Amino acid sequence: MNRFAVAFAPLILAASALSAQAQDPHAGHTMPPTRPAPAPTPAPQEPARPAAQDPHAGHVMPPAQTQPAADPHAGHQMPAEPATVDPHVGHVMPAPAPAQPDPHADHDMSTMASAQDDPHAGHDMSTMSMGPPDVPTSADNPGRPPEEALPAAALSGPAHAADMIFGAEEMTAARRTLVRENGDVRTTAVIIDRLEAGFGSEDETYLWDVQGWSGGDINRFWWKSEGEGDFGGELEDAELQALYSRAVTPFWDVQAGLRQDFRADGEDTTHLVLGLQGLAPYWWEIDAAAFLSTKGDLTARVEAEYDQRITQRLILQPRMEIEFAASDIPELEIGSGLSSVEAGLRLRYEFRKEFAPYVGVEWSRAFGDTADYIEARGGEAEDTRLVVGLKAWF
Q1: DSSP readout, 314-346?
Q2: More confident call, 71 vs 298
Q3: DSSP assignment, residue 71?
């Protein structure tokens, strides 16, 4: 047995070495020496300042005391400090009030503007009036603060205090000049409402309708003129009015004066005129008047027109004129009642506000005895014609 072990001992040692090499893959290899890991680069630092020289260098220092300092009150008997007495001892304290609920609880306050977003941040708002302005208005505003009545002493002095210093005569003239230069402005205008030629089935006619005024906002002098005739023939009729006009409301004037008619047959007539002219609701321009002749004939006429803007320069104007008579007037071929109606439609183009040519169509019709008078002399009671004209003012 011992011989066998001695004989196989080299083989057992070789097997053990092979087993160790199988476990370590680098066993038996000559490995190069391992390089040390590079040291991290230190951050740049300020150069170290030299330490201050120790003034005790080279001195033999006695050992520091490690024992605590002696209590100066050791062995003394100190009086006991009295306990602080609670001032509320023995008092019955009421229960604290419950906390009020937060009115903004559960609200999202994230969208509220910060103080930087406030355009009035840093402004003194204490002098701003929070109430409505105390100014007169045409509306009955219950929110306005009440105004106290003037004290009696405020009305006890003269109507114009400056009269006591400069004299009543001088100040009266000054006030009259102030009104004339600032409030009583005088204006003058001439309006060519219609200056046109008409082309019908039998004849060609011309017509004018012109008016103007001179004066202020309240009192004015008005004049009006109308007339018509046939091209190549005589003037049929014309009229001229001279009127005093007074504004009774912001949009209406009452007018009174005289009218003089001129006719081809020599039947000139004078009339008294009483009229009303102004702007009706929906922007209808109205000119209505009654005429009483020196012969006792009473007639009336109403004109209405409206400007419908299609563009800033192109305007469509419907127009209507109606005439009435209280009695028959044979020499003027006018019957009682509704005597005639004219209705037209004109389209004008404003090259300027003061200059606007137009084209249109107009229909006219006589009624009652007026139609009989016209047909008796061979005329037509109804007529339609094309019109071309000009509207201007200056």
Answers
A1: EEEEEEEEEEEESS-BGGGTB-SEEEEEEEEEE
A2: 298
A3: P
